[in-house]
């Protein structure tokens, strides 16, 4: 375990940019919301309902091979005559392969950058200068949820994805076991937010999840999640929520000016 946490600390401290810093870039937008429903995170059409449809595709350094799926960012346009000071919050649901912009926003998120009544003006620009930083995700009255993917089939294969992850963390490991059993099977990140295993325990299932927290990692225990008769396509309440904030081994960069 100590080796794992040392490796995790290396991953955090060697990041190319600190999440807590304010960054500047340009953002564009998808003209059709459906473009994000087939995103690299695997959320599918569920993505269209996240955060009122204010979602985004992020560059690889923020997508983090899928670990950045579900991360929340505050983005604000730097055109003060057109855009509000607070900007908008977006949730990462896809991978942006265009290295000219850190994000490509849904049109709803892009319009939300502007003052009321000026959303069509910002759409006409198509590309705007912004600043952004990562912020904690907050889901009021909503626990971390587990969705059983359609590719799952008993008793040989289970694929799940995690929804509504709070806090400011990444999921870096997942294990599954029968409720009450000490025999855990590790799961592998298939892609994006989807984890799977071919060693499926029988009966009702519990999960233990390692998330980045502080300067190391933290176990999150969800003790009774999937019933014995779990169904593909169903979403199950984990009974827990993540509120932790990951720390980064890099120099201080937040001067408190971001509000």
From TrEMBL:
Its main location: secreted. Gene3D superfamilies: Expansin, cellulose-binding-like domain, RlpA-like domain. It is found in: Secreted. SUPFAM superfamilies: Barwin-like endoglucanases, PHL pollen allergen. InterPro entries: Expan_Lol_pI, Expansin/allergen_DPBB_dom, Expansin_CBD, Expansin_CBD_sf, LolPI, RlpA-like_DPBB, RlpA-like_sf. The keyword Secreted applies. Residues 38-142 form the Expansin-like EG45 domain. Residues 1-17 form the signal peptide. GO terms for biological process: anatomical structure morphogenesis. GO terms for cellular component: extracellular region; plant-type cell wall; plasmodesma. Residues 156-238 form the Expansin-like CBD domain. Keywords: Secreted, Signal. Belongs to the expansin family. This is Expansin-like.
